[in-house]
Write a structure and sequence with these properties.
Layout: H1 7-14, H2 18-26, H3 33-46, E1 64-69, H4 75-89, E2 94-99, H5 104-115, E3 122-125, H6 131-140, E4 144-147, E5 157-160, H7 163-176, E6 182-185, H8 196-211, E7 219-220, H9 229-241, E8 252-255, H10 258-271, E9 280-282, H11 288-292, E10 299-301, H12 304-319, E11 329-331, E12 335-337
Parallel strand pairs: 1-2, 1-3, 3-4, 4-5, 5-11, 6-7, 6-8, 8-9
Antiparallel strand pairs: 10-12
Helix pairs in contact: 1-2, 1-3, 4-12, 5-6, 7-8, 9-10
Amino acid sequence: MSTKPTMRDVAAEAGVSTMTVSRVLTRPERVAEPTRRKVQYVIDRLGYVPDRNAGSLSSQRTGFVAAIMPSLRNSNFADTGRGLANTLRTAGYQPLFGFTDYRVAEEQALVAAMLARRPEAFVLTGGYHTGATYRMLEQAAVPVVEIWDLPANPIGHAVGFSNFDTGRAMAAHLIAQGRRGIARLSRQAHDGFRDVRGDMRMAGASEALRAAGLRDDLTVTGGAGPVTFGHGAACIAALADDGLLRGGRVDAVIAVSDLSAVGALTECQRRGIRVPDDLAIAGFGDFEIGALSVPPISTVRVPCEEIGALTGRMLIDLLAGTGPAERQVHDLGFEVIARRSTGATGG
């Protein structure tokens, strides 16, 4: 493990005094903009994080684990957080949660802020981060677990499932139901927002469509930002207004989330589009509202709470010095839940 960078290292590389570095961190308005930018560039490049608890906690446990998730609105992430918190509590640890709103720049800012408070471990959602985030975590020398994904080269350990395979499996289900014009209801990246895991699900669906000799370019973004019910409604409106729902040109949609799928179902009911007769609808996440919709929505179920619980157990072992020495990647899998919204019987 490389040596943790110090304020003196930043000052030397930036060609300024340690006092100037300190001012950039605490009173940036008192530093000329060119100097401030130069110092901040070096801070990001080195992955330097000031220790605001230095001295007072130099030989003590802080007792908390930093956990960064995309959203407060998604009950799947809430379930994962509950599994993590309940497990960590058994060993006297508490999670400190932060939320990125699907923005990697916000994740980077949260990592820097949390590292300044000396967490004993980090939990990150997904395997896509900024370079500065990678460097800060490498320098921190604490256990890191990435969740809800299976990154090819994890920072430390990973607990999740293949988002790509969930999309591929749902597309295969629709194809088996006889659907041939399958559109994907996705989200548009903008202003730093990007749903990387949702993009992977859509990419998996695309691969299944190509393998079956079907069109894979029927994609509707429905606007920007985190998924809402309105997203699905807007996507169906766009398909209908473009005439793609006439004559079976589009006879099924895969939504990036059950929230979007429920919105799509509601817009179909508003327009007199019969589900699943005219249009099959599938989602992701197995939200309660999807199961209670009429008709119930086909979806992909993932073990949200178990992801958090297993992550917690791993961290307890790692912090006790009994965890695995080698990187561990745990694939907890998923389940396609076929319901009446895609023509399945009994759901």
